[in-house]
Amino acid sequence: MKKLIALVLCFLASFSAGAVTETNKTIVSMGVQDTASGGASGVAQAYVILSPAPTTDCLYGIVYIKDVSTAGGTALLSVLQKAYSLAKPLSRIDYSQDSTGGQCFISLIEVG
Question: Which terminus of the chain has a smaller tally of CB atoms within 10 A, N or C?
Answer without folding.
Answer: N
